[in-house]
What does this fold into?
Amino acid sequence: MNLTSTPAKATLKEKIGYGLGDFSSSMFWKIFSYYLPIFYSDVFGLKAQHAALLLLVTKLYDAISDPVMGIICDRTHTKWGKYRPYLLWIALPFALVGTLSFFTPDWGYTAKHVYAYVMYILMMTVYTAINVPYGAMLGVVTADPREKSVFSSYRMFFAYIGSFVAMGIFAIFEKSIAGKPNAAGKIMNGVGDANPATWTFVVAIVAVMCFLLFLGCFALTRERVQQDEKEKGSASVGSDLKALLGNGPWWLLLGGGVGILLFNSIRGGSAAYYFANILGASPILTCAVYLMIGEIAQMLGVLLAVPVSDRIGKKGTFISVLCVVTVLSVIVWFLPATSGGFWGLVVLQVLICIAIGINSPMLWSMFADVADYSELKHGTASTGLIFSSSSMAQKFGGALGAFLLMQVLAWSGYDASLASQAPGTLTAIKALMSIVPAAGSLLGLVCLLCYPLGGAKMKEIQSQLEIKRNNDNE
It folds into this structure.
């Protein structure tokens, strides 16, 4: 594949601009990951098992839509580039559909159930349409492998700022969202106690911010690495898919990504239930503060990402993180439901989130490495298609985590209308905050131990690619 590049060094403005994109998408992603399960069960009024099936079934659609979007944006040619224009085109639908996903219509149960399916599928469609191209931009904003890690670090740092802001907004509106305590002192004890209209209003505030941030990302970034015109569209869809399916490092990195996202989604989604039912605290305010502490810790982790990966490599960083979060998550199981146990949980939250923050930029940067590997081995980088797999891993891991969360709650007899849950249900909620997410990170660890693209291998690939590109351009 012939490549030509505009000047290699990207500016600080471009790095900040790139970060604004995940500032936006992360706000909605965290709201959907952490609050959609409890919104569906305690506000919207879906049964836990129905909410679980919804979150899983829609991922079958995503398994098709993500690669399709990757193929589409790989073949998009505009004056703004291949991937960047989607930030402009999809920003408004992203904001509108996200808001409507948290709207509770005054309909019967079946009609509301259908509405939830339609809106969630639409939300995942627009999320795919804007985030697959956004992620693929990492492969074309610079040709320098180390600078890709720097761009990825800016991305994740701003992503955690976005998550922090979103959690802060939810904390501000906590009383309106959560409703009034019942006679037993429980908050959000079934449909009707919380205020559905306020949920929609709060999400709409976030949506306006998301819209403006994506426009800022579009305005401040540029695609520095571009295909020669004569090469555009020359590779068939079939050859791209064949190259992807035959890409062993892609499969292993996909498994690692699903594993860490299972860890994050199960642990994050169960936090509201843990605070409400194990600790007897507000599932909105206390959980939001807890999650905001985590976002700050993850920002600290992002600052450490490049120095740590420079020392032990991207693969070594990912493996180390998976080991650390697995052990720390299991420790949560042994914490007592006391004030001391609460502060122990906070300390573990800080340590786990620092580790997650260190790893987050590495995952995206490693997908860029997989694209370079594909270009060398198969003659086509298929950047959009490969980065669509990272989006697919993110959504599949998040949805599978949400499905497991809701399914475990259903199996254990969780009933939102009860003032207190049965002992078996409480045990299940405790496991969802500790042992179950640890199983997800162990899955990722197994995959990463087999991942072949370490630092030495990538230096070899970059050297061969440079020779190949130079020969192609002669």
